[in-house]
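Can't paste images in this forum, so I'm doing it all in text. The chain is below; anyone willing to post the predicted structure tokens underneath?
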Amino acid sequence: MLLKLIKNVLVFSSLFYLTFYLPFVFVAYNPYWINYNCENNQRCSKVKTEFRVNAVNELTSFLSHRGELNTGWQKNEKIHMSEVRHIFDIMFMAALASLALLLIIRKDRMSLYKFAIINIVIALALILIVPNFKTFWRDVFHPLLFNNDFWKMSRQDVSYYITPRSFFKLTTIVILSTWISLNVLIVASGLILRKDRSLYQD
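Text version of the structure:
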């Protein structure tokens, strides 16, 4: 009984994390996503296109350990981005561990869809962050993850222009929406399998 409970907790946690991490990693390392948002915010229009494109490419390359920050990045930004990259590295390792657990602890789709329903409920609850995003971003998220103020941006910072708070708000909406969608697909798959099994049993 205890072993079954432990397995269920591990599978739920792994599915919860992986279905969150997949949309996260898509936007976190994607220069096209940042550039798309940049083209639709007023701050980015204040810097030259070439500068913006170089800065975005440097940022995504830096976060994935493929380059350095050279295009006008301030010292405080470099320190903060190094801390962010460290968090991303930990998240990547956690994703690998979650995937390994799901492969080792084999569960059929009938079991997974029940956990996916819980994931959907949690993700829907987290949507409450969006209307209060400024407060969450300033008073909860950053103080929880960082023990300094290097995350605070000024007009001298590159990130002030290419990744304003509006960018992170929209990114959060995309991640939550995709996270919900992935779990809906798992639920639908589980329900179809359940229906097929009931037909065979009849």
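The chain has one domain: 2-201. Residues 2-201 form one domain.
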